[in-house]
Design goal:
By secondary structure, this protein is of the alpha/beta class. The protein folds into 2 domains: 2-30; 54-256, Vaccinia Virus protein VP39 (Rossmann fold, 3-Layer(aba) Sandwich), CATH 3.40.50.150. Helices cover 42% and strands 25% of the residues. The chain contains 9 helices and 11 strands. The strands form 3 sheets. It has a 7-stranded mixed β-sheet with strand order 3-2-1-4-5-11-8, sandwiched between helices. Helix 2 packs across helix 6 (107-116). The longest helix has 28 residues, at 2-29. The chain starts with a helix and ends with a strand. The relative contact order is 0.11. Residues 20-29 have low confidence and may be disordered.
């Protein structure tokens, strides 16, 4: 009786194990790249626009006020880390005559960006910013890192900062925008309910990958060796009836030392 049961049980176990391994393999294939490819096709979670970021426009107005129109003409090159549909590079090319380079992990986003950037001096590549940037030393006037590097872990963020410093010219600018933990109840809740392995990171509820949220002190410490911070702009505490209604963000105007 035991031999008969065993002869039936083993093939069944093999079948279920095969199905389980296929399921695991399928689950592993779902990445942030898959999410963003789908998002740029359907706009399910984000209201995507071709208008430039208001925070970037604020940064450019500040540069012009502080340094003048003549200085602005010297800002010829810009790289966007996480360029999406190209809206910010298109703005800088059209309004300031800049030559741009964009990197994004989403094939769909890059396809849209190329279409929107037709006849403009902008090139795009499908590439993760974890990899070394295929740019020459001290070749860029501005680097944009807008809501992108918070998907990296601590070691990757430090390495990216080294790359940013490498490709920026000696007086080049690093415009950095990310989520701010300070006084953000929703971020505090995410850290409590879905903590990731790294302190200050949580598992994103929709994408399923780790996402880091910065404190202002953490950013200052991260930047202090390579960059001088001229100005910081923080969004207001977005509360409705005592509950978090919108995430807080922080924009940093930093210049290479």
């Amino acid at each position: 009786m035991y031999n008969i049961e065993k002869s039936v049980l083993i093939p069944l176990l093999n079948i279920y194990m095969g199905r389980f391994l296929k399921y695991q393999k399928k689950q592993k294939k779902t990445t942030s790249k898959d999410f963003w490819d789908k998002e740029y096709k359907t706009s399910t979670h984000l209201a995507l626009s071709m208008n430039p970021s208001e925070d970037l426009e604020r940064f450019m107005r500040w540069l012009e006020r502080e340094f003048g129109e003549r200085y602005m003409k010297s800002l010829k090159t810009v790289v966007d880390l996480g360029s999406g549909n190209g809206r910010n590079l298109v703005y800088l090319a059209r309004d300031f005559g800049m030559t741009g380079v964009g990197f994004d992990i989403s094939t769909e986003a890059v396809a849209q960006a190329k279409k929107e950037s037709k006849d403009l001096p902008i090139t795009y590549s499908v590439q993760s910013i974890v990899k070394p940037l295929p740019l020459e030393n001290e070749s860029q006037a501005i680097v944009l890192d807008m809501m992108t590097s918070h998907f990296l872990n601590q070691a990757e963020r430090k390495e990216l900062l080294n790359e940013v410093a490498r490709v920026l010219r000696p007086d080049g600018w690093y415009f950095f925008k990310t989520f701010l933990l300070d006084e953000d109840k929703r971020a505090e809740r995410l850290l409590q309910e879905s903590p990731a392995a790294e302190k200050g990171s949580y598992i994103h509820p929709k994408i399923g990958v780790a996402e880091h949220v910065f404190t202002e002190d953490e950013i200052r410490e991260l930047f202090e060796d390579k960059f001088f911070i001229h100005k910081i702009h923080k969004s207001h505490r977005h509360l409705a009836h005592g509950q978090a209604a919108k995430r807080r963000s922080i924009s940093v105007f930093a210049q290479k030392k």
